[in-house]
Structures are given as C-alpha cells and as structure tokens.
Design brief:
The chain has about 350 residues and is α/β, with parallel strands linked by helices. It is built from 11 helices and 17 strands. The protein has a 10-stranded mixed sheet with strand order 11-12-10-9-8-13-6-14-17-16, sandwiched between helices. It has a 5-stranded mixed sheet with strand order 2-1-3-4-5, sandwiched between helices. Helix 3 packs parallel to helix 4. The protein is elongated, with a radius of gyration of 23 Å.
C-alpha cells in the first residue's frame, strides 16, 4: 500500500502512459494504469490499440510477483469498465486479483459504464478514491467526453495565416495551382502528426479544388484519417487526390447517397444547418473527432455556429498584402508556442 507519496504523482504517470495511445485507441478512450506496492511502481501499462487489452490488464500483467497485488494500489485515469465488449470487464479482473484499493482520475461518461465500474468495485469491498487530477484526466480524453456528453465529435479547426492576416492570395487572379505555403516545414510535419491523431479530416469545395490536397498522413507514422469534403453540387473533378481510392472518403452533397469504390456520397439537407447535420452523421457513425483544414468559408461557418472545440492557428512571417482574409476568433485568449519562425496560437472554446 502507499504511505507518503501523493496520489497525484502516480496519476500523472497514468496520464503519461495513456497519451501514448493517441491515434490508436478510438473509439475507446486513452487510459493508463500503474500498480503501486509500498510506494514503488511494480506494474504499468496503457491501452495500446482498439480491440486490444485495456490499461488495467496490461498493468497487472507486468507485475512479476502477483502475490504483491493483495497489498497494492491500482491507479487508473478513467473508471474501469464493468461490461463485456471486445475484452472482459476490467472491474472484475481487479476484484479477482485481490487488489484492495483503486484510485481513479475521473468517472467514465459512457452510459455503459458511468459509475457502474466504481459500484462493482465498492460492492466487492475494494476501497475506491475518485477525482484525482480529474480536470487533467478529462482534458486528455476530451474527444471521448465531448462525444458522449455533447453527442457530437470533437471539432478541431486548423489554418495557417500570414503576419498580415491572410490565408491565401486570390488565386483565380494569380493563377497559382499549387498551395502557397505560409508555415514552415516543421509546422507542416506537425500537421501530419495531428492528422494521425484524429479519426476524420474535413475540407470545403474550394480548398479541394484549388489545393488538391491528399489529406493523408505522409510525414509522420500513423493512420490516415477518414477524408471528407463538402461538395454540395458535386462539381469537384474526379482526377483530384480525394478520389484516388487510397483512403476512404466521404463526399457530403445534396444529391445522392452512393458508393463508388472507397468513395461514399452522403446526401445532406443543405436548407438547415449543414454542419449540425454533418456532425450528427459522424456521431451516428461513432466518429469522435474531426480536424477541419479549410477553407475560409467552412472554418468561419464552424466559428459562427459555435461548433468547435479547439483552433490551431499557425502565423508565418510572410505578408501577402491582399488576398483571402483569415478567420478570426474573438473573446478567447490563445496559448502561444514558437516553431522556429512560426507562431502557433492554440485556442480552447470553453
């Protein structure tokens, strides 16, 4: 059992471990766990991949001397599950191994769990402490909590702007066919890392037409997100990368529901809030996050309808003097990070 070391110390280790699963566990949450015997970690693990063993299982399995479990404390950043899914209930494993005490960061918002795991442990005589670093635990699993509490995916807006506030030149006039890069190479690699962490990625018609983006992960190891584009009138040419059948792609339109190879056409009602309809579709499909990469009209629509959770804005050193104005987020103070000559502004919508 623990004596002098605060619970927060071990919970921070759980959070560090849990973060290692980002991009691999969805739609499951990010979970890390440690087993502590007399102020010494004797086992640790995290949920590594959807469908694989949960964090508590991996942590318990790493304990070399299982006889110590009956005098140990298990720490976990999210309430242990109490139902059978792709794996057996973690609460039952904790009980059968004889662990007498469990410290939990936050309860699970999933209605299938939501307090049931805690009750099962307590009914079996396990001492349970909850709410340790609760805010940090919920921030780590903000995609998971947003999905279950707000019934929509977690929405991340991303764009790059010049130092004088433009995201592009007027390319119809300039005749530029390739993207006019504003951010530096390191910032662009970071974007590929972000893509690997989210379940889906979305652009508007103009961005698809002018940039011809691949919207996949090329400069970072990991999975490519589900590609999505809003093409109301189905005017995008089929020679774009979006239609190369290398990555599953959704095309939101007002005309048809149809499947062509890896491209799925999804008919939406454009007379109401198309963004609410789109997010409802993603929620129904179990997608917990979407990275919105442009363009100006689409991002401004998310801002105007207050359907966003984070915005990540690169500001480069270039000046265009004129062009397409960058979106503006007001009344939210951003965090700032420097990436070489770029400045990354990180907005959180409270």
């Amino acid at each position: 059992m623990t004596s002098g070391v605060p619970h927060e110390t071990y919970m921070r280790r759980c959070l560090d471990l849990a973060g290692l699963g980002l991009g691999h566990t969805a739609p499951n949450p990010l979970v890390g766990s440690v087993v502590v015997y007399h102020d010494r970690i004797i086992g640790e693990g995290y949920h590594q991949k959807y469908g694989g063993p949960h964090a508590e299982v991996n942590a318990i399995n790493t304990v070399a001397d299982k006889s110590l479990l009956s005098a140990s404390v298990l720490y976990v950043n999210l309430e242990p599950c109490s139902h059978s899914g792709k794996t057996p209930p973690c609460a039952d494993l904790i009980i059968t191994t004889g662990i007498p005490e469990v410290v939990i960061g936050t309860t699970d918002p999933n209605p299938m769990v939501s307090g049931k795991g805690i009750r099962r442990l307590e009914q079996a005589g396990v001492k349970v402490t909850t709410g340790v670093l609760q805010d940090q635990c919920q921030v780590l699993n903000r995609r998971f909590f947003t999905f279950h509490n707000r019934k929509r995916p977690f929405v991340i807006l991303k764009w790059a702007q010049t130092s004088d506030g433009y995201i592009d030149v007027l390319r119809e006039k300039a005749g530029i066919e390739e993207p006019n890069w504003i951010s530096n190479e390191i910032s662009r690699i970071l974007v590929h890392k972000w893509r690997s962490e989210e379940q889906s990625i979305l652009v508007g018609t103009q961005t698809a037409l002018l940039d011809n983006p691949m919207l996949n992960v090329r400069q970072w190891p990991g999975n490519s997100p589900l590609r999505m584009v809003i093409d109301r009138k189905l005017r995008l040419p089929k020679n774009l990368y979006l239609f190369d059948n290398t990555v599953p792609t959704l095309v939101f339109n007002e005309t048809k529901d149809e499947q062509e190879g890896h491209t799925t056409y999804v008919k939406l009602n454009f007379n109401g809030s198309v963004l609410e309809s789109l997010l409802q579709y993603l929620y129904d499909k179990g997608l917990q996050s979407v990275l919105v990469e442009g363009g100006q009209i689409l991002i401004n629509s998310f801002i105007r309808e207050n359907l966003w959770d984070e915005a990540r804005v690169f500001t480069g050193t270039k000046e265009f003097g004129a062009g397409v104005h960058a979106p503006v987020i007001r009344q939210v103070s951003p965090e700032q990070y420097r990436i070489r000559e770029d400045v990354l502004f990180f907005y959180h919508n409270q």
